[in-house]
């Protein structure tokens, strides 16, 4: 069986490190990107099974990345979880209508992340 893959997209190295440890614990192979542009280049080459996506990043924000990802060949396949401190319902609705499968509030822990992965059918 091919290992499941997850791309963690966040401009914070610390968040990427914490998320990596949790996601690897869920038996995923993990890659990282520091912004949406880097993530899009990665996805165009190798489409991951799951994308853990930050909202606010330099170069290309999460929402722009998500819309461009969904337009790529096979870009409808990855489960996308928005990781955000954004709590306004209309912003969350915007992310979901742009193609996010769910969202995770920061700060998150292993229990929260694994239950969100289960909810979207990633584990």
From TrEMBL:
<feature type="domain" description="Response regulatory">
    <location>
        <begin position="5"/>
        <end position="121"/>
    </location>
</feature>
<dbReference type="InterPro" id="IPR011006">
    <property type="entry name" value="CheY-like_superfamily"/>
</dbReference>
<dbReference type="InterPro" id="IPR001789">
    <property type="entry name" value="Sig_transdc_resp-reg_receiver"/>
</dbReference>
<dbReference type="InterPro" id="IPR052048">
    <property type="entry name" value="ST_Response_Regulator"/>
</dbReference>
<dbReference type="Pfam" id="PF00072">
    <property type="entry name" value="Response_reg"/>
</dbReference>
<protein>
    <submittedName>
        <fullName>Two-component system, chemotaxis family, response regulator CheY</fullName>
    </submittedName>
</protein>
<keyword id="KW-0597">Phosphoprotein</keyword>
<dbReference type="GO" id="GO:0000160">
    <property type="term" value="P:phosphorelay signal transduction system"/>
</dbReference>
<feature type="modified residue" description="4-aspartylphosphate">
    <location>
        <position position="54"/>
    </location>
</feature>
